[in-house]
Amino acid sequence: MSASSSCMSSSPVPESHAWVRTSAHTAFLTVDNPSAMTLEGTNTYVIGDLGESFPPEPGAPKPRAVVVDPGPADQGHAEAIAAAVDVALIVVTHWHQDHVGNVPALHDLTGAPVRAWDRELCIGAGRLQDEEVLKDVSVEISVWHSPGHTADSICLSIFDDGMILTGDTILGRGTTMLDYPDGDLEDYLDTLRVFKDEPGFTVLPAHGPHGEFLEEACERLLDHRLNRIHDLRRRLKASDDDLGPSASSLAEDIYADVPEEVRGPAVKTLKAQLAYLMDIGEIAGFTD
Asked: With bands split at pLDDT 50, 70 and 90, how would you rate the model's confidence at 205?
C-alpha cells in the first residue's frame, strides 16, 4: 500500500491536534490525515531530553531530538516539528507514504540526516542495523528489525522509559495489514513472538492511542492472526478449494461487508495468509 497505513476500522477525528507527552523522553504530534486506514492520523514522535515543559515556549531553547515518522507530505506539520525541537536525526519505520512523504520537507527545514532500514530512504547517513543503538541524543534508542507489515519495518525502544515505538507493526487499535508480497505473515508472527518475550514495554504506535503493554498487545495479535488462519483453513476445506484457491473469490465471501476503501489492503492480507499456507505445504498455490 503506497499511501496509507494499515488499520481496518474508523474512529472519531479530533478537532485539532496538539503535542502529547508520553514519557520523560518522548512525545508525539498527530498529522491531520485521518482515515479508516490511518485512524486519527500518523503519530510523529520526538525522542530526546524534552525537559519538564514541552513543547517549549516561542523563543525558548529547543530540545535536541530524534524525529520518527514525519508523516505524509504536509508543510505545516513539518514546520510544527521544526519549531518544537532541534532535529538531530530523522528516522522512518517503513516505506509507506503516510510515514515518509514529509521527509523531504523536514530535511529541507532542518538539514538533519535520514535513516531507515531501506538504504534508498536514507539521506546523508547509513541504513539502520538490527540491534543498533542510536546515540544521537541524550537517551539511547535501540533498533529492532520487525518485518511482517512490510519487509523493512523497524521498531525503536527507549529502555530508560520502558517505551517502544512500534510504527505499523502494532497499532493503538485494531490490526495492521500485511502488504503482500512485501509483507509476510510468517515474518509477522515471528516478530510478535520475539516482542512477546520482552515484557515491561509500553506501546507507542504510529496510529491510534498509546499505552497498551507490549506483551498483551502481542498476545492479542497472535491470537487474532492464528484465528484468521484457522478460519481460512475451514473455509478452504468447506469449499473443496484447498489446492489452488482464488484470492478474489475468497475475498468476495470474507470481505463482503468491508468498505471499499479498505478492501484492497484486506485482500493483500488475505494473500499473505494464503502464501503462508503455501509455504508450510497446506496448499499448492493460489491465484489472484
From this structure: very high
Q: Which three cell numbers stand for residue 179?
A: 502488504
pTM summary value: 0.92
Q: Rounded CA gap, 31 and 29, in Å?
A: 7
List, for residues 46-70, the tens digit of each pLDDT value.
999 999 999 999 999 999 999 999 9
Contact (Cβ atoms closer than 8 angstroms) between residue 32 and residue 73: no
Number of C-beta neighbours around residue 185 at 10 A = 22
Classified as helix, coil or strand, 195 is helix
What's the whole-number average pLDDT of the chain? Answer: 91
Q: What's the pLDDT band for 258 if we cut at 50, 70, 90?
A: confident
Give the DSSP per-residue string, 210-279: ---BHHHHHHHHHHHHHHHHHHHHHHHHHHT--SS-BHHHHHHHHTTTS-HHHHHHHHHHHHHHHHHHHH
pLDDT digits (tens, 9 = 90+) for 86-124: 999 999 999 999 999 999 999 999 999 999 999 999 999
- What structural domains does the chain harbor? 20-213 (3.60.15.10), 224-279 (no CATH)
Amino acid identity for residue 65 in this structure: A
Residue 65 and residue 88: Cα distance in Å, rounded? 6
Q: How large is the C-alpha radius of gyration of the chain?
A: 19
Where b means 16+ CB within 10 Å and e means fewer, 59-94 reads eeebbbbbbbbbbbbbeebbebbbebbebbbbbbbb
Burial of 237 (0-12, 13-18, 19+ CB in 10 A): exposed
